[in-house]
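@channel anyone free to eyeball this complex?
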Amino acid sequence: MKRDKNLPLTETVYYILLALVEPAHGYLIMQKVGELSGGQVKMAAGTLYGAIENLGKQKLIQPVQSEDSRRKVYVITSRGAELLRLDFERMQQMIEVTKGILK
Amino acid sequence: MRVFKFFINLNKEEKWLNEMAKQGYSLSKKSCGYEFTPIKTEYAAIKMDYRRFKKQEDFEDYCALFEDSGWQHIAGTKHSGYQYFKKADESGTEDIFSDVPSKAGRYKRLSNMWIGLAAFYIPIFAAFVAVGFIELAPLLDPKSLYLTPGLWEESGAAFWGAFLFETPFALFRGALFALFPIMIMLFLIFAFKANKYYQSAQSD
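replying in thread with the prediction:
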């Protein structure tokens, strides 16, 4: 099977998509990415804003209705979820094959 | 206090603003020049981004994200491009960017803005030349900027009197003709410089 050209996802993109399985606004995404990565990935505001903008352009995430008038809320799209799953499988393959070799 | 200064390099601008803050002057507004207010509080880091917004709600969302993460938006508007942030508390990150490509990206946006500005003025300039509002001839032949009949055939005091009298007017006419080409050249130079900073920032 031909691999999707967006793969592999970068670590930050992977965690942002994972965070957006449930809707969240910018700062909540930032906190979730920190938590999900066990404190390994700390994103600053300017970097996160640019990443959100890019993912929106690629239609991997989309804005949803928000009760907060100032903060936009985003959620993953079906295309985003598909990519996330493909990258997860890619990494699983890497883990399996590595397990067999590095004991 | 108001200070007039012009930067293309965002890193140099940040450095200058942080030095001003160390001396007790905090940036409070940027419109025509930089406006500073004296501060007593201890030194706080100032960081810059370059970003323009189409919609007011996008700008609000952008500012909210920075404020939530401990960076107070101190100057800049929806269209200004230049955005200034001050570290509001200790909890925030060290910088407003956490990786090299995104920090370099602001120079790309800055460079695109200068190119856009040049691209905006080039057709206007071309149209003015086409309809004869701006003539290119005077740039090559400055004598034609003097309109006094027979001026160049005069000599002695009569020539100098008429020549000096008309020089300010000629300069004004010449400046009008030269204004557009000079502006367009400057914008392209700024775009080129910003793009150079973009390339060097990427390899930092």
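from a first look: Strands of chain B lie at 2-3, 25-31, 33-38, 46-50, 71-75, 82-87.
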